[in-house]
Amino acid sequence: MTTKAELACVYSALILTDDDVAVTGEKISTILKAANVDVEPYWPGLFAKALEGVNVKDLITNIGSGVGAAPAAAAGAPAAGAAPAEAKKEEKKKEEEPEESDDDMGFGLFD
């Protein structure tokens, strides 16, 4: 039942977003009631809170872009003179941080 409720709330949130209507728990409940879908009363509010302040259209349209695409593009933007200084800072940080291993703590992957 949980999967059905989640899916119904996702679809109703997408319908609201497509119509440029604010996604609220009350509006999700209205769509679910019109579709004769029974869900627990907390689901619409949960989805409304999760999508609060999120631009769903941007989220959907950027789903195909890689996670590292924006940082990689931003890293190429600084002037060439700044790159060696940043590389030195990164090297210092790597040297200062001691490497931790699960083996050191007595934990292993298959323990």
TrEMBL record:
Coiled-coil stretches: none
Region (Disordered): 78-111
Similarity field: Belongs to the eukaryotic ribosomal protein P1/P2 family.
Protein name: Large ribosomal subunit protein P1
GO cellular component, one term: cytosolic large ribosomal subunit
Keyword flag Ribosomal protein: yes
CDD domains per UniProt: Ribosomal_P1 (cd05831)
Keyword Ribosomal protein belongs to the record: yes
Purpose of the protein: Plays an important role in the elongation step of protein synthesis.
UniProt cross-references to InterPro entries, sorted A to Z: P1/P2_N_sf (IPR038716), Ribosomal_P1/P2 (IPR027534)
GO terms of molecular function: protein kinase activator activity; ribonucleoprotein complex binding; structural constituent of ribosome
Keywords carried by this UniProt record: Ribonucleoprotein, Ribosomal protein
Organism: Megaselia scalaris (Humpbacked fly)
GO BP: cytoplasmic translation; translational elongation
Biased composition (Basic and acidic residues): 86-96
